[in-house]
Amino acid sequence: MNLILLAPEALESDRLARVTDPRRLRHLREVHRARPGDRLTLGIMEGGIGQGELLTLDDHEATFALDALDQPPPPALPVHLVLALPRPRMLARTLEHVTALGVKQITLLHTRRVEKSYWMSPELEPEKIHRHLELGLEQARDTRLPAVTLEKGFRPFLEDRLPGLLAGRRGLLAHPGMAAACPRGIETPTLLLVGPEGGFIPWEVEKLLEAGCEGIHLGPRILRVETAVTALLARLF
Amino acid sequence: MNLILLAPEALESDRLARVTDPRRLRHLREVHRARPGDRLTLGIMEGGIGQGELLTLDDHEATFALDALDQPPPPALPVHLVLALPRPRMLARTLEHVTALGVKQITLLHTRRVEKSYWMSPELEPEKIHRHLELGLEQARDTRLPAVTLEKGFRPFLEDRLPGLLAGRRGLLAHPGMAAACPRGIETPTLLLVGPEGGFIPWEVEKLLEAGCEGIHLGPRILRVETAVTALLARLF
């Protein structure tokens, strides 16, 4: 937690914030070992970042005297990430990684090789997803929450959603064996599609290429989804 | 497990292998749901890769009829990674990520902000480390095991080991706030140094720069060690 993220209702005034949620209080006590007088970095959800002084800390709340929270959050990556739904534990970690890296639009997609049971996981409950996004923001000192969309059918996604997503974006389909190496250091708005463990099936690859995506690869090594997504984002942007 | 890694003693002959370790047998049964007749990818530790046919599978062993295991493993990255020892769970995952990405030399280093208790973790036992390296190799279909060295003192590392490691290698110190952005797509032999959560202390940064390392950064976002290491390797190579 490199930033204490304040919901707007945590602000008692421009200059006073009150944090009551148990996870952050525990982190302040046990990891930061914070004491009144310590200066810490805070940010308002969807807003600015700055410093504050810890005034009080007990088991139920922490209060902070705030400086102006007027620094902007770090820039976002110009990417909409479409990720075949990973298994639950991998999903949790991947949401944290990509949020910390600055992704702001995430679509979780069903594909042939996604196990249907993954869609029943409690990790997909909005509060669970929100929590992983918050952890990513707090890690990277960001305040802007990514939007996460669930697409439970591949064909409706392909036919109804993909054309709109590709308008004004370069579509990149990351898949082993594609012809082109992943490009480096691009700044173009991008739609990045990443398959599940085991990959997209050939029919899905064919349809995504027909829809206008370019196939790219990361080399001969087969990577876990969380490793591959981080590597793709770091190489692309 | 995209490759079944065979210790040399698993080879009964050029053409017959016997796998007995419980983890791989369980994976074959429960994840691959393998049956006699299935063709799978196998590799010999430090050797070649090829296909084999599963002949028998029960609770105690699997036997394979091997084709020629004559494909080379994928190329290694030209990097020696020096990583401040992360906390145990992060260490486990980071070893898997970097092994899958193709790192072959890893030094785990003590720095001021590494908690001393981490050096007592069972994750540092050679068999535990070996297991994480194997998982990384099996993920990426590689057979060449990274060498892992433990350096429990920063000053002895700095004075006795670093000059040798920098001979013939470009030293890159990844640290927030350094002047240069992480370079992209280099092919030079590299020594990459990555600090702990909380970073190197200023004195350590100063000494590493004095020793000839170049400071590089990944931008304004503070990343977890496992995310940062993957991002650095993907951007550098």
From TrEMBL, chains A, B:
Enzyme Commission number, as recorded: 2.1.1.193
Keyword set includes Nucleus: no
Pfam families documented for this protein: Methyltrans_RNA
Ranges for domain Ribosomal RNA small subunit methyltransferase E methyltransferase: 76-236
Localisation per UniProt entry: Cytoplasm
Keywords: Cytoplasm, Methyltransferase, rRNA processing, S-adenosyl-L-methionine, Transferase
Main location: cytoplasm
Job description of the protein: Specifically methylates the N3 position of the uracil ring of uridine 1498 (m3U1498) in 16S rRNA. Acts on the fully assembled 30S ribosomal subunit.
Family the UniProt entry places it in: Belongs to the RNA methyltransferase RsmE family.
Protein's name in the database: Ribosomal RNA small subunit methyltransferase E
Originating species: Halomonas mongoliensis
